[in-house]
């Protein structure tokens, strides 16, 4: 979007400057220029004269001269340094398994030596080509142009490949999204493939963790390499860390046995394997949960399409409380109309509009080199608006066009997957290497994409061969005429290859070739695809049953808690209350007994008083908890409230009869 805004403003700048330039060169005659007309001029005698344009109106988004070239120069050279120097180095640094900054930098430099050597080879070849031509003089400006040309040539080569795929696949993806049945069986197919990948990732993680365990047991706490083992263990999942921690015996000295210990280089390799295995395991686990939710939602849509109540019912309602948007705006009735009716037609209408845009782009890519007559539809639209100086229309047309081109190209980058080496996954599951690789592609594709757009609207004088003022962007690109075979050949005729790429994408030739090579791809007429769809359907059904059992168990526990409360808390409260009642009953019993003892023993001897004191101080060891009762005291049976102590029971209450 930023590129669209900047390039549209750049086009407005150029059109306004061209207007002022043409106005200064026009010859003026004595005339009365009507302020309400843009083209008609009438002289004092009333005879028609030569048509002359009126004064140019400055657009509202006009930026003073000198600012845009500096801005584009900073943006261009910054992106080039990122894509050709810094990002490749950061890729190797992030993927390295080194334990120190120095080790990671060393590994990154070694891995990028071949990469940088390729740059020097391409630049040297172009430099030799310019040197053997005597009519060309080498200067810093020309060397700069050669470097820019080499980068744009590589970017344009990749741009056409990605654009040819995106122009067909994006409209088709929205059309297929309107077909719920097709989308559901494709989700089953993805579930089958993802389960295979998930099992493979778990198996790989188990193997790597077993190797880590062996290394951890062989290297003890006082070994010099133990700090590297601790670094590796911190990257492992928590459950594996606990298992390895329980089996670790740090009391054994590593010098007591003559074992073969791994080297630091092998630990670096193991560290790299651990990082990759853990990240892949987490990614497949999250992707499986997301895909499971998508499959359940699509099955709910298929069930609710035949609903007569016109209210959307979920198989597994969300446990979170509904917000104000769901309560008042996105109600079950609105959700049913959107999911089962409106969404389908919206996607179909959007697919038709995008298809028309794609047809216009393909036609303009094949005909933008023709200036007389003008065949490029984008150039025709811009020139019609340029005559009336409709700056708002020009800016909106440029913005929408470049935004659509960027969407087609960049969305293809998101779909690219090179095994597990490069893969952009959603929900923050992409590794650092893939993120940096996609950043490199964006930096390489943006400059040739801007040049291609300027060629489509005939504002690049190098391609259109028209005497026009250069835009601020083309002024920093330099004159492509230094390398005429690229400016007059490759830049003009190579984009025509987009027609062949669109046809190949429409008939899914790439998918069929990958399927023949053994890579499982979704194809409607394939027996392997049908088997994977059935397998994915069974996997989703199994996961739904498991999720239903978990939800039923939670509902039963919730109902039991609401009906009977928390049994553990009630049991603890009853124990505390009974214990307090026992202590109170025992103290009351002892006090009443003492009072009776004192009543009948005032005239007793000292030995008898000592006997009573000993009985008073003794603790009851024969408490019967089963005899605990809340009944009122019974005078005849001699029971005491709050519990019964066997030492105070009626069967033994006669021990003081002789007193």
Automatic annotation (TrEMBL):
Comp. bias regions, Basic and acidic residues: 569-585, 605-619
Family according to the record: Belongs to the LIMR family.
Organism: Oreochromis niloticus
GO annotations of cellular component type: membrane
Sections of the chain in a coiled coil: 191-218
Bias (Low complexity): 586-595
TM regions (residue ranges): 113-132, 144-168, 345-363, 392-413, 492-509
Keywords linked to the UniProt accession: Coiled coil, Membrane, Transmembrane, Transmembrane helix
Source taxonomy: Eukaryota, Metazoa, Chordata, Craniata, Vertebrata
Identification of the protein by name: LMBR1 domain containing 2b
Cell location: Membrane
GO biological processes: adrenergic receptor signaling pathway
InterPro entries in UniProt: GPCR-associated_LMBR1, LMBR1-like_membr_prot
Ranges where the record places region Disordered: 569-659
Domain of life: Eukaryota
Pfam families: LMBR1
Protein's membrane topology: Multi-pass membrane protein
């Amino acid at each position: 979007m930023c590129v669209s805004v900047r390039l549209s403003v750049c086009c407005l700048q150029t059109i306004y400057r061209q207007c002022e330039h043409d106005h200064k060169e026009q010859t003026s005659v004595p005339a009365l220029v009507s302020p309400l007309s843009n083209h008609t001029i009438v002289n004092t005698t009333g005879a028609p004269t030569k048509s002359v344009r009126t004064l140019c109106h400055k657009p509202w988004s006009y930026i003073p001269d000198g600012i845009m070239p500096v801005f584009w120069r900073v943006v261009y050279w910054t992106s080039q340094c990122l894509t050709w120097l810094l990002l490749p180095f950061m890729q190797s640094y992030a993927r390295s398994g080194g334990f120190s900054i120095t080790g990671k930098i060393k590994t990154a430099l070694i891995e990028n030596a071949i990469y940088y050597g390729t740059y020097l080879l391409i630049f040297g070849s172009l430099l030799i080509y310019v040197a053997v031509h005597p009519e060309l003089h080498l200067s810093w400006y020309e060397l700069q142009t050669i470097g820019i040309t080499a980068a744009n040539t590589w970017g344009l080569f990749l741009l056409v490949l990605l654009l040819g795929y995106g122009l067909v696949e994006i409209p088709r993806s929205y059309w297929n999204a309107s077909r719920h049945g097709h989308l559901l069986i494709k989700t089953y197919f993805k579930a089958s493939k993802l389960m295979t990948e998930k099992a493979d990732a778990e198996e790989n993680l188990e193997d790597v963790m077993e190797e880590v365990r062996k290394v951890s047991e062989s290297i003890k706490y006082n070994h010099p390499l133990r700090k590297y083992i601790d670094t590796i263990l911190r990257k492992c999942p928590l459950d594996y860390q606990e298992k390895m921690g329980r089996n670790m015996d740090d009391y054994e000295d590593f010098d007591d046995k003559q074992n073969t210990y791994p080297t630091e280089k092998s630990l670096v390799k193991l560290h790299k394997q651990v990082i990759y295995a853990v990240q892949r395991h987490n990614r497949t686990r999250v992707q499986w949960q997301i895909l499971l939710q998508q499959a359940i939602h699509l099955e709910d849509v298929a069930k609710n399409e035949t609903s007569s109540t016109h209210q959307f019912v979920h198989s597994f309602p969300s446990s979170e409380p509904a917000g104000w948007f769901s309560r008042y705006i996105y109600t079950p009735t609105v959700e049913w109309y959107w999911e089962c009716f409106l969404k389908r037609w919206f996607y179909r209408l959007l697919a038709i509009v995008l298809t028309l845009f794609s047809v216009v782009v393909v036609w303009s890519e094949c005909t933008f080199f023709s200036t007389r007559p003008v065949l490029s539809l984008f150039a025709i639209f811009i020139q019609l608006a340029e005559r009336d100086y409709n700056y708002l229309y020009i800016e909106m047309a440029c913005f929408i066009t470049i935004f659509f081109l960027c969407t087609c190209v960049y969305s293809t980058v998101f779909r690219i997957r090179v095994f597990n080496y490069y893969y952009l996954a959603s929900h923050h599951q992409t590794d650092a290497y893939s993120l940096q690789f996609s950043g490199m592609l964006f930096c390489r594709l943006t400059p040739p994409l801007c040049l291609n757009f300027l060629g489509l609207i005939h504002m690049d004088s190098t391609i259109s061969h028209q005497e026009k003022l250069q835009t601020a962007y083309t002024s920093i690109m330099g004159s492509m005429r230094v390398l005429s075979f690229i400016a007059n050949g490759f830049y003009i005729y190579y984009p025509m290859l987009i027609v062949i790429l669109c046809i190949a994408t429409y008939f899914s030739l790439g998918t069929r070739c990958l399927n023949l090579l053994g890579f499982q791809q979704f194809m409607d007429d394939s027996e392997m695809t049908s088997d994977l769809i059935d397998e994915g359907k069974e996997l989703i059904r199994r996961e739904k049953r498991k999720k239903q059992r978990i939800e039923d168990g939670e509902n039963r526990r919730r109902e039991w808690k609401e009906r009977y409360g928390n049994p553990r808390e009630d049991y603890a409260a009853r124990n505390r209350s009974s214990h307090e009642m026992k202590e109170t009953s025992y103290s009351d019993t002892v006090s009443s007994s003492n009072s009776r003892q004192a009543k009948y023993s005032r005239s007793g001897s000292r030995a008898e008083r000592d006997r009573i004191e000993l009985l008073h101080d003794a603790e009851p060891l024969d408490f019967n908890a089963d005899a605990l009762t809340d009944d009122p005291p019974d005078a005849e049976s001699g029971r005491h409230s709050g519990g019964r102590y066997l030492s105070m029971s009626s069967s033994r209450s006669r021990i003081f009869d002789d007193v």
